[in-house]
Amino acid sequence: MADGAGEVAQDGQGGAAAAPTRAPAAASAGASGGRAQARVNLAAIQRNCERLRTQLRRETALCAVVKANGYGHGAVPSARAALAGGATWLAVADAREAHELREAGLREVRVLVMGALTTSELEQALDADADVVVWNEDYLQAVVACTSSSTPAWVGSARAMRRRPRAWRSRRERLPACC
């Protein structure tokens, strides 16, 4: 995030510490031979979500993407900071990440799994009460076979997740028949 999201404050149990302290999240050799450190400031994540909320209509949902372990900064602490700042739901890449959020006690918030899943991973994502993205008609049929009629599924092409866009315009009328 734009506002100093380069520092981390954790309480040692995956939650945010009461006072914003700074601790390295990752280190690697820098070009000058020194060590570079990535830091996450959970208060900055919260402030960024608060700022975004001020720009949105009250009824508009704000989804915080915390995939890849919160981009290396800790998915659970980043998710909690985003939710405290007004995010209304979370997005992850796979079923394992959805389970991690649920196991950390984030049970009431909506979670979207953005990545394509195998049948086994699909069952895990649905077991975590996560929404899933449908990439093609075959996958839509797999989702329908694994779910109740009330399970949300999102249609998308997800260029950010490096999937090729599908020709949904020509298939749009077929989607309701599958659901």
Structure characteristics:
TIM Barrel, alpha/beta, 8 helices, 179 residues, 36% helix, five-stranded parallel sheet, two-stranded antiparallel sheet
Task: List the SSEs and their pairings.
Blueprint: E1 26-29, E2 35-38, H1 42-54, E3 63-65, H2 67-72, H3 75-84, E4 89-92, H4 95-103, E5 110-113, H5 119-127, E6 131-134, H6 137-146, E7 153-155, H7 168-171, H8 175-178
Parallel strand pairs: 3-4, 4-5, 5-6, 6-7
Antiparallel strand pairs: 1-2
Helix pairs in contact: 1-3, 4-5
Q: State the major sheet.
A: 5 strands, parallel
Order of helices and strands: EEHEHHEHEHEHEHH
What shape does the CA trace take? globular
CATH architecture of the domain at 88-178: Alpha-Beta Barrel
CATH class of the domain at 88-178 reads Alpha Beta
CATH topology of the domain at 88-178: TIM Barrel
Distance between the termini: 37 Å
Structural class: alpha/beta
Biggest β-sheet: strands ordered side by side in the sheet: 3-4-5-6-7
Average of per-residue pLDDT values: 75
User: What is the total tally of β strands?
Assistant: 7
Strand content: 5-15%
Q: Give Rg in angstroms.
A: 18 Å
Helix coverage percent of residues?
Answer: 25-40%
Instruction: Report the uncertain regions.
Output: 6-30, 164-175
Output the number of helix runs: 8
The CATH fourth-level homologous superfamily of the domain at 88-178: Alanine racemase
Folded structure, characterized:
The chain is an alpha/beta fold and 179 residues long. The protein has a domain at 88-178: Alanine racemase (TIM Barrel), CATH 3.20.20.10. 36% of the residues lie in helices and 15% in strands. It has eight helices and seven strands. The chain has helices at 42-54, 67-72, 75-84, 95-103, 119-127, 137-146, 168-171, 175-178; strands spanning 26-29, 35-38, 63-65, 89-92, 110-113, 131-134, 153-155. Strands 3-4-5-6-7 form a five-stranded parallel β-sheet. Strands 1-2 form a two-stranded antiparallel sheet. Helix 1 packs parallel to helix 3 and helix 4 packs parallel to helix 5 (119-127). The longest helix has 13 residues, at 42-54. The radius of gyration is 18 Å and the shape is globular. Mean pLDDT is 75; it is low at 6-30 and 164-175.
